[in-house]
Please model this.
Amino acid sequence: MSNQKLQTPIQYVKGVGPKLAKIFANLGIFTVEDLLYLVPREWEDRRNIKPLIQVRPADFEVIKGEILKVEAPQTRSRFSILKVYLTDKTATLQAVWFNQPFLKKLFRPGMKLIISGKVEISAYDHIMQMLVRDFEIDTGENLKIVPRYPLTEGLYPKKLRSVIRTVLDNYLKAIEDEKTRNALLALHEPKDLESIGQARDFLAYEELFLFQLGLLLRRQEYKEKLKGRVIDAEPVQLDEFNRLIPFVFTAAQDRVLQDILADIKSGKPMNRLLQGDVGSGKTIVAALAAYLTVKSGYQAAILAPTEILAQQHFGKLVKLFEGLFKVDLLTSATASDKKREELFDIDLVIGTHALLEEKVKFKNLAMVVIDEQHRFGVHQRAGLIKKGFSPHVLVMTATPIPRSLALTLYGDLDRSIIDELPPGRTPVKTYFVPEPKRSDAYEFIRLKVGEGRQVFFVCPLVEESSELDLKAAVDEAKRLQNDIFPELKVGLLHGRLKSDEKEAIMKKFLAKEIDILVSTTVIEVGIDVPNATVMVIEHAERFGLSQLHQLRGRIGRGSEQSFCFLIGSPKSQEAKARMKAMLDTSDGFKIAEADLRLRGPGEMLGVRQSGLPNFRVADIIRDEKILQAARSAALEFIERDPQGAHNRWESQRTAVENSKKKLEGSTFN
Ligand code: ADP
Ligand code: MG
Model:
């Protein structure tokens, strides 16, 4: 089959061989198909090259000229330099190559070259020079539009272009669809600039369409093939639950609940993403889902990313369901202490990763809630689901991911959004505090504690294992207690404490026995202490924007005005932009969009979780419109012609799955 041909390892392409194949492997290129889809992001237009007299310092420029003179000055080190003077009659420019002495033999006066690279004024002799990145002999025929591919050490642009030429000659015809063939050709060997944009958009659309088709077919498959436990959700039960809680649901919570109730009554397994900004009240929604499940005679589980959060959920839910059902906690600490693996007699279990272990067994798990999903790896999502017989799954996330990311990461889930905060909240006031003003912040804290409020001090912990950062937090707690606030009670919380120590400290903080809690980012997710109304974030510049937003979400949870102080010294433009975004808005979606712009999708989500496919052409930020169109078209296709959609996916799924596999191979190990 022709598809098979596209899977030819590039090692067997003429001119490649094992050594080059290894270099390509670093770029994620293994097959001929990968090479065909190595879509350039930029092109050099060599049709109208500037006369040398018009060339100015620039990060990238293409020029041409005739060689006047070749020089290879002696250097004392092993480092070598080659200087070639080019002229085009309007002016002269010095081209410089480092450590490629063998080129000397190639160049002689009179020869015509096209060179590209960085242009600068030489610090040494003050003349205009180019640090050459790429060159070609000017044959007259290569004065056209030329693609620029990503660069890797050991792979010269000219070599790459010639490999791609070979691949186009021998393998392009193996691609069945003519439009795709033309688009690829238009990108690798463009005739004009207009066709480049069209070709790129076409390929991005194709790629996203196929990806969405796969996700949507999977979503449909859950619904059609799998049976879900039918869970009673009658008005009486809802009334019973409402009597247990001290507030009324917001309209947004109500809407989301209607979605969930419809799912769990349907006899099909629920697969739903619940998105809601920090503090929007997702926990209680999860509690209701668990309540109804247990009422129907099944077990429910809530998975939390940190022990502290699991303990907090446990504390709340035990209280909420007191005398009604058996609620238990399972974290790595409790699992080994009490050796509880068979959870047959428990109605609702709350736990951390420990819940995912092979030996943990349920009787009839019918509801799985995954809190703060963005903190888990994609594989773990599957782990707990396997423990039930196609259980209902509710995935919750506070990271308000932009729509384009949500469609890509969670496109196989139905989606509900809580877009409203409970009533009576006042937005947190956020200030940037330069170092000299630090003592003012301390005074303010003294005042607030005097009024009965509590305070978080957050110290960065870049890695869970970093001794240095840990020490910084410990020292900071000591300093605050001894030197700054001797009259107040300062506590310390970090990830290395034993499970019962963490629990004891959180309990004390909740009971107001601690005024100031110094903490690492272990409090980032989920922690709910409404009386804490002040947060100080030390070295704020070291945190990502979404993380800062999550942290700030720990305050502003009650009706009291809350205050967030960012202390730090942002140096880079990007760090300054992060601080500014925090001062400008408290809207999680706006923050997420800013974060996405500043850092790109992979970084924003963190490598651990990203789960983002490695798109070959598409860029989900830039191509958001195309993505939406592709999703609608895929939906429409499935509705109109389910069999056709299925066949289309089956015939091309390798492309999508390969790109996912590659990513997993490189990122998750
Ligand atoms: P998150 O969505 O960040 O997980 P939580 O579930 O922790 O938010 O809820 C934040 C706080 O809001 C909790 O103290 C919770 O009890 C409270 N809360 C939730 N829903 C409501 C509501 N409808 N009215 C008033 N308070 C609510
Ligand atoms: Mg939460």
Observations:
- Residues 235-418 form a domain with the Rossmann fold fold (CATH 3.40.50.300).
- The pocket of magnesium ion (ligand 2) is lined by residues 282-283, 371, 526 (CB under 6 Å).
